[in-house]
Amino acid sequence: MLVRDDTIAAIASAPGRGAVALVRLSGAAADAIAGRVCSPWPPAPRVATRVTVRDPERGLVIDEALATRYPAPRSYTGETVVELSTHGGAYVPAAVLAAVVAAGAREAAPGEFSERAVYHGKFDLVRAEAIADLVDARSRAQHRAAMQQLAGTLSRQYAALRDAVLHVDALLAYDIDFPEEDDGALPRARIDMACAGVIGQLDALLATLPAAQLGRDGATVVLAGPPNAGKSSLLNALVGEARVIVSDTPGTTRDAVEVLLEADPWPLRFVDTAGLRNDADPIERLGIEVSERYLARAHAVVACAETPAAMTQALAAIGALTGAPVIGALTKSDLVTNRTYIDTPAAPIIRVSARDGTGLPELVAAVVAAIAAGLPSPGDDVPIVTRARHRAALSRARDEMQAFRDAWGAGALPAPVAAVHVRTAAHALDELIGAVDVEEVFARVFSTFCVGK
């Protein structure tokens, strides 16, 4: 990691018109640079103090701001940090940033404050990534995963995984380098069992990938059924606004319309699709083909129909196009008089009305339950792997540990050669949690087995 010893500065608040903006400095010279543009200086540490910000070259007043100093090492980056809370807008924060750059700071690169924090041991790389995930979160699921990661849940899991890999490596090192010790050679089953435990931990982490994808993209819930079954009206009612054109003319919906709806434990991506029918014109048929593709990859399907008889036909048609769970929505329940119709063998049926909102909460709850039945939601204490970088490193480590176990179980390779797989797995984890060196492995060997007594 390349960390320079200069002082960096950046506008840390979002651009645009606003009441307050934040200009942040970090580095050994942050105090001196801030003192060239702010007066009075220096204020007391960790106390917001009103200062006048001036152009260091011309002495012109730029703003009246609040300055807060965080002396090293008790700061976000581990360096001396100065935060200037200025008036918002476009000009003022840009002018303040220009002033501190003229006074000796350098404009920070993207993520450089967090990079310096990792370098100075304020937190690890995994938790630094959680900060970016928290900023980018668009749903409660993403927010929950980011907060878990920021709290160190995933870091602790990776640390435990690293310890487990090192344990396997230490066992191998003992078996290879100290075969004549009084305790004798290690049972091969002991090494195999330790390796199996590592693979189990890796599998558990990789198994969270589908939940992470749902948290990021939302579960795809397709509204399907014949034309004029109330699909578009139902979608508009679910999101609380007119997002889709509603018409009595068959074939009005020619393309899929997606709307993301917040829900727990994952957001739901409702998709309004073209009505399913056999006698469609060529243009409408293109829309139906799009509907069929969505049905094939849906996490759940809401079958829409106006009457019980139409529902039976819709369920049969939809069932042939998807393997996802299907929930029936008997639309326009305010107009249906047959109140005894509840469900069918093919799917649960919920009476809904886009006009008065009847059944909408029950429909959403049924959809969430159907998805959760196939993909249980991880608990709050279970870390979720959300980043491609993590997935790639964990997958490589898993492949290497499995290759070692296969070779070890078959006795196909000498122990020193088979151990290369374990060390490659450790190096894959280095991308997440740091390096593993020979000295650390041997320290474990000596402390565990008391070699050299």
Strand order of the largest sheet: 3-4-5-6-2-1-7
Could you tell me the strand content as a percent range? Answer: 15-25%
**Total beta-strand segments:** 13
Residue runs with pLDDT of under 50 for 5 or more positions: 244-254, 434-453
The CATH topology of the largest domain corresponds to Rossmann fold
What is the arithmetic mean of pLDDT? 81
Task: Quickly list its features.
disordered C terminus, 3 domains, 7-stranded mixed β-sheet, 453 residues, Four Helix Bundle (Hemerythrin (Met), subunit A), 15% strand, 13 strands, alpha/beta, 15 helices
Task: Tell me what you see in this structure.
The chain has 3 domains: 8-117, 2-Layer Sandwich (Gyrase A, domain 2); 153-208 and 384-449, tRNA modification GTPase MnmE domain 2 (Four Helix Bundle (Hemerythrin (Met), subunit A)); 215-374, 3-Layer(aba) Sandwich (Rossmann fold), CATH 3.40.50.300. The model is unreliable at 244-254 and 434-453 (pLDDT under 50). The protein is an alpha/beta fold and 453 residues long. Helix 11 links the parallel strand 11 and strand 12 (326-330). Helix 7 packs antiparallel against helix 13 (388-410). It has helices at 30-37, 91-102, 112-119, 125-136, 140-150, 153-177, 188-206, 209-217, 231-239, 282-296, 308-319, 360-374, 388-410, 415-433, 438-449, and strands at 8-11, 20-26, 38-39, 49-54, 61-70, 81-87, 106-107, 219-224, 257-261, 268-272, 300-305, 326-330, 349-351. It contains 15 helices and 13 strands.
